[in-house]
Amino acid sequence: MSRGFTLVELLTVLGLVTLLLALLLPVFGKVRAAANSTACLANLRQMGTAWTLYTTESRGRLMHYAWLTPDPQTQAWDLYWPGVLDAGHVRGPILLCPSASEPSENEANYGYGNVTHAWTGKFSAIGSVFRLNDTTHRDSSYGYNRYLTAEGGFAGDSQATNITSARSLSDLPVFFDCAVADVWPVNGSAQSPVKPPPNLRGDQITSRASEHWNFLLARHGRGINVCMADGSARWVHLEDMYSLGWRRDWAKYRLNLPAR
């Protein structure tokens, strides 16, 4: 006659299962994070390809900055980088990092994203680049280097309107993990660096926050994914973001960032 498990045996098995789960859960988390980062890099490469095609067809001329065109309202929707990517059939899920795919619902903060949420155009003005009408708007986990516009003067020159003015395309950010649609971060120096954000979660990001706070997010470990002007995409440590060539006169130094 067979006998059942004793209480001690059952507790022993449950203890072993619990121990195995405790050991495996962090591994599963790391695997999931790595998969999300890989998918994010794939998104950025597609975005970079569409941008490169546009720039090539425009003979190197940079796009114009646009936000709102009241007449007709549909004009703005087709402009700036969201319109450029949309014309290249890069839209929807491609604009969302798997680690921050849910759009923000914080209307008081204008729909800005953070480390785990995408930004949303839901609260933008109707007729803008990010909101077409009451039912149609854009969401994204990524931002654009606004220096790469005809008005941006990305090379330290307000008249710089062509990508040929840029140097080191492999270190020139185009698209990257970000809490807002675009950034125009100010310069600094080793002696007078820009002020670091209070944390790397994006909790303090508002319309009045410093521009660079919007991309100093611990979204993929202690770094973000960045698509460069040569079409490559890679993970960049947050402390190294200011060593990239955002513009020709950008100082190269490390930021003293908070732990998280």
What does the model show?
The chain is 24% helix and 12% strand. It has 260 residues and is an alpha/beta fold. A hairpin with a 4-residue loop joins strand 7 (223-228) and strand 8 (233-237). The longest helix is centred in the N-terminal third of the chain and has 51 residues, at 7-57.
Short description:
This protein is an alpha/beta fold and about 260 residues long. Helices cover about 25% and strands about 10% of the residues.
Tertiary shape:
globular
The overall average pLDDT, rounded, is 85
Tally of separate helices: 3
Give me the count of strands. 8
Quaternary structure: single chain
| Protein structure class | alpha/beta
Question: H/E element string?
Answer: HHHEEEEEEEE
First-last Cα distance = 60 Å
* Helix share, percent: 10-25%
Measured by DSSP, the beta-strand proportion falls in 5-15%
Give unreliable regions as ranges.
none
Largest sheet geometry: 5 strands, mixed
Radius of gyration: 22 Å
Give me the side-by-side strand order of the main sheet: 6-4-5-7-8
Summarize this structure as a short list of keywords or feature phrases:
single chain, 260 residues, alpha/beta, five-stranded mixed sheet, three-stranded mixed sheet
